[in-house]
Amino acid sequence: MMIMAQAPSDRIAFVGVGRMGSAMLQCVLDAGYGVTLHDPSEQATAPFVESHPERVSLAPTAAEAARGAEVTSVVVSSNEQALAACLGADGVLAGATPGSVVLVHSTIAHETLQQLSREAAARGVHLLDAMVSGARGHFDAGNLAVMVGGDADAFLRAKPVMGTYGGLVLHLGPQGAGLDAKLAINMLRYLCMVASQEASALAEQAGVGEVMDQLVAHTASTRYMGNLARLQQIPLEQRRREVETSRKDLRAALARGRELGVDLSAAERAEGLMGRLWAVDGE
């Protein structure tokens, strides 16, 4: 008999309302869910409280946000933030109800995921690695790709929530499968960007740089080629954050490659080039 996805209860929890988290949260609210939010930034949460006062409430801690929620989404940036958001007396897992589902949307290391999974299992909570990816326009359109690893029944219970911001929501296998897919996608992106930068440098030096945009548009070249010019227009602090994020993701992919015995020498070289790619002096 086919197992059908069941809609979760009206109120879910959301921990982390940054750039991507806020776009995902808006999709959840547009779908009619009630949400309990936790984020240390009042500036991040205030617009949602003001626009949906009847369906949005604030919690002083991640644990309080998760208390009573059937599905809790965690959208933070780093390994350290994921551990802080989920563990400890104020963390999600301290408040999550046994049997509930916690979606970790953050691109983290496998070691971090395993640590979170052990703690969740000890508390009877289903933790899924539910990685998200998409171009900038996909955020607001609710058309992200959501790559999920973990318990299949928990996936089906949480799928209606993920479907509000995901145009493609896939259960890829056991714990870690979603994270593996995200690490591979991110590695592909950064390698393409490095290759595009070096191709542009060669073309400029050879005196054919002016036709590169036209050639890229007319051939099967990577779409990242045309995006390199805008990197110089991004504020320096944001570029520094991009360097930090890209190195984190590549290091996680390299660690996974070593674990699986896969040669990722190109990714290893790319990790050392992120400062140059994002035009950050001294990196």
Helix content: 40-55%
Unreliable segments of 5+ consecutive residues? 1-7
The assigned structural class equals alpha/beta
N- to C-terminal distance: 56 Å
Summed over residues and divided by their number, the pLDDT gives a mean of 89
Reading side by side through the largest sheet, how are the strands ordered?
A: 3-2-1-4-5-6-7-8
CATH class of the largest domain: Alpha Beta
For the largest beta-sheet, the strand count, sense and barrel status come to:
8 strands, mixed
Question: What's the oligomerization state?
Answer: single chain
Number of domains: 2
| Count of DSSP H/I helices | 14
CATH fold descriptor of the largest domain: Rossmann fold
Number of strands: 8
Described by the principal axes of the CA atoms, the overall outline is: globular
What is the H/E order?
EHEHEHEHHEHEHEHEHHHHHH
* Reported CATH architecture of the largest domain: 3-Layer(aba) Sandwich
Question: How much of the sequence is in beta strands?
Answer: 15-25%
* Backbone CA Rg: 20 Å
What is the fourth-level CATH superfamily of the largest domain? NAD(P)-binding Rossmann-like Domain
3D architecture notes:
An 8-stranded mixed β-sheet has the order 3-2-1-4-5-6-7-8, with helices on both faces. The protein has helices at 19-30, 42-51, 62-66, 79-86, 92-95, 110-122, 136-141, 152-165, 177-206, 212-218, 228-231, 236-260, 265-271, 274-277; strands at residues 11-15, 34-38, 56-58, 71-74, 101-104, 126-133, 144-149, 166-173. The radius of gyration is 20 Å and the shape is globular. It is an alpha/beta fold. The model is unreliable at 1-7 (pLDDT under 50). The protein has 14 helices and 8 strands.
